């Protein structure tokens, strides 16, 4: 595949979202940032996303619900969930819904991007 | 019944003895000194006191004996010509007076009344003392609750601040990684970052983040305390808890709650905290509105608990000025319209609700604000 991979970011905190966007771009990818799950679902080009970096603690529709919703729309995207605090049960549930990884915050930037790289290659 | 008769004249003593029923034990002394002495040694149900005694006369006889036996009812015996003295004695606390020479069945009845009246008075005093004690207990409990709630609130504030600081830290870490990548890609840039420096910056960020997550872990150890509870009960308890404040601010409160239990899986103290917070906000909003509209301001808070699509809902509606919803997000930290507010109340509520898989929303109405919290219903 020659085209540049598209990476989606869903994160409600402005500074974290913007810094992730910068990080994704500097690794040579296109970055599409959304501040909520609702915003992502409203996007018309969902099928063009190659990988999704998803914050676990979202207002409104939460990470788990978004993943199921995308599944139902037949629009599943390989997803990496990042989270400040998450209990084992929820983490297991996420893994069962097929996410690639659940990373605890503080997110190690390089590790996250290596994971993204593996996902899209 | 034991009666102490303080009387120096045998004739009058005999009259009294004839008057009293058979089951009465009458102990007669002739001087005030003997009377004062015996009331400290023996107990009596009633004292009959002639004011004119060899060693004392007039009102002094009464007050001296009263002070020596404050708990025993005293009925004064007087002659026909010194009734005014008897009236003075009654003002000083005598139960009644009897006129010598008229000791008949009516006099006896009034003695019975005197004893009864005294018993009622002392019962009443005892009840009052008990009530005061109970009230003290209640106030102590209220203070303890307030203390617990303050400590818990401290924890919440700490957790919230830790959470908020961790966000920019995360951003700094991401930006640092970005800058490193730029430097790595473009080796020709003379200002490329020395690897040692960037490593130290990452370590410093990690340290700060570890401190924050440890702080959070320290204050949030209550996840295990979630129990299935009727939310209506929690709401009722909470309303009781803020009842004093409500009355102080003259606020009318109505509760409209489902008759059937609305069970949720929660840490009750945390949910109470959310509700207290909402009620206090509602009170503040009403007080704030009253500053503009004055005494015509309606002072009402409505609380509703109900079920909606497998969710349990609590609504708190106030008759205040309404949140400026189009302004800043009221749930963002450090956003406040109160001059002395920290702006942490609603963000903390939000965090508590989210950690319970619940939600909190605000909407303005024509006549105030409704804040709604929802929690998943817990079925056993």
UniProtKB/TrEMBL annotation, chain A:
The modification 4-aspartylphosphate is found at residue 55. GO terms for biological process: phosphorelay signal transduction system. Keywords: Phosphoprotein. Pfam families: Response_reg. PROSITE patterns: RESPONSE_REGULATORY (PS50110). SMART domains: REC. It comes from the Bacteria. The keyword Lipid biosynthesis does not apply. Residues 6-120 form the Response regulatory domain. This is C4-dicarboxylate transport transcriptional regulatory protein DctD. It comes from Stieleria marina. The gene is dctD.
From TrEMBL, chain B:
Residues 117-144 form a coiled coil. The modification 4-aspartylphosphate is found at residue 50. It is an enzyme of class 2 (transferase). SMART domains: HATPase_c (SM00387), REC (SM00448). The keyword Phosphoprotein applies. InterPro entries: CheY-like_superfamily, HATPase_C_sf, HATPase_dom, His_kinase_dom, Sig_transdc_His_kin-like_C, Sig_transdc_resp-reg_receiver. GO terms for molecular function: ATP binding; protein histidine kinase activity. Its EC number is 2.7.13.3. It catalyses: ATP + protein L-histidine = ADP + protein N-phospho-L-histidine. GO terms for biological process: phosphorelay signal transduction system. Keywords: ATP-binding, Coiled coil, Kinase, Nucleotide-binding, Phosphoprotein, Transferase, Two-component regulatory system. Residues 2-115 form the Response regulatory domain. Residues 160-379 form the Histidine kinase domain. This is histidine kinase. It comes from Stieleria marina. The gene is fixL_6.
């Amino acid at each position: 595949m020659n085209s540049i991979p598209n990476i989606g970011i869903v994160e409600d905190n402005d500074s974290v979202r913007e810094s992730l966007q910068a990080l994704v771009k500097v690794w040579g990818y296109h970055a599409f940032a959304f501040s909520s799950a609702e915003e992502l679902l409203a996007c018309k080009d969902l099928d063009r996303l190659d990988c999704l970096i998803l914050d676990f603690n979202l207002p409104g529709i939460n990470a788990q619900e978004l993943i199921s919703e995308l599944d139902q729309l037949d629009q599943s995207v390989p997803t990496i969930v990042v989270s400040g605090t998450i209990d084992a049960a929820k983490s297991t549930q996420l893994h069962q819904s097929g996410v690639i990884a659940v990373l605890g915050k503080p997110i190690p930037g390089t590790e996250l991007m290596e994971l993204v790289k593996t996902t899209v290659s | 019944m034991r009666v102490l008769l303080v009387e120096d004249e045998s004739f009058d003593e005999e009259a009294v003895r004839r008057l009293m029923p058979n089951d009465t034990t009458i102990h007669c002394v002739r001087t005030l000194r003997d009377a004062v002495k015996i009331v400290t040694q023996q107990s009596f149900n009633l004292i009959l006191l002639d004011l004119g005694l060899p060693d004392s006369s007039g009102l002094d006889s009464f007050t001296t004996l009263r002070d020596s036996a404050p708990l025993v009812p005293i009925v004064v015996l007087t002659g026909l010509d010194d009734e005014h003295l008897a009236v003075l004695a009654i003002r000083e606390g005598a139960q009644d007076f009897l006129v010598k020479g008229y000791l008949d069945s009516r006099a006896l009845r009034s003695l019975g009344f005197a004893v009864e009246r005294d018993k009622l008075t002392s019962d009443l005093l005892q009840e009052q003392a008990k009530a005061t004690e109970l009230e003290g207990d209640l106030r102590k409990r209220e203070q303890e609750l307030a203390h617990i709630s303050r400590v818990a609130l401290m924890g919440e504030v700490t957790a919230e601040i830790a959470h908020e600081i961790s966000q920019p830290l995360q951003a700094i870490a991401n930006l640092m990684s970005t800058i490193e990548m730029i430097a790595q890609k473009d080796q020709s840039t003379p200002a490329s970052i020395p690897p040692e420096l960037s490593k130290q910056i990452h370590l410093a960020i990690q340290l700060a983040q570890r401190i924050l997550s440890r702080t959070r872990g320290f204050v949030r150890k209550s996840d295990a305390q979630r129990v299935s509870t009727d939310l209506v009960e929690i709401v009722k308890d909470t309303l009781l808890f803020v009842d004093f404040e409500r009355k102080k601010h003259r606020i009318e409160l109505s509760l409209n709650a489902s008759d059937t239990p609305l069970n949720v899986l929660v840490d009750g103290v945390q949910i109470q905290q959310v509700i207290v917070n909402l009620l206090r906000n509602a009170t503040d909003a009403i007080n704030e509105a009253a500053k503009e509209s004055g005494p015509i301001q309606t002072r009402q808070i409505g609380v509703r608990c109900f079920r909606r699509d497998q969710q349990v809902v609590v609504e708190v509606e106030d008759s205040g000025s309404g949140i400026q919803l189009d302004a800043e997000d009221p749930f963002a930290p450090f956003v406040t319209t109160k001059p002395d507010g920290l702006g942490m109340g609603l963000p903390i509520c939000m965090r508590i609700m989210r950690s319970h898989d619940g939600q909190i929303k605000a909407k303005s109405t024509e006549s105030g604000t409704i804040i709604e919290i929802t929690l998943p219903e817990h079925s056993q």
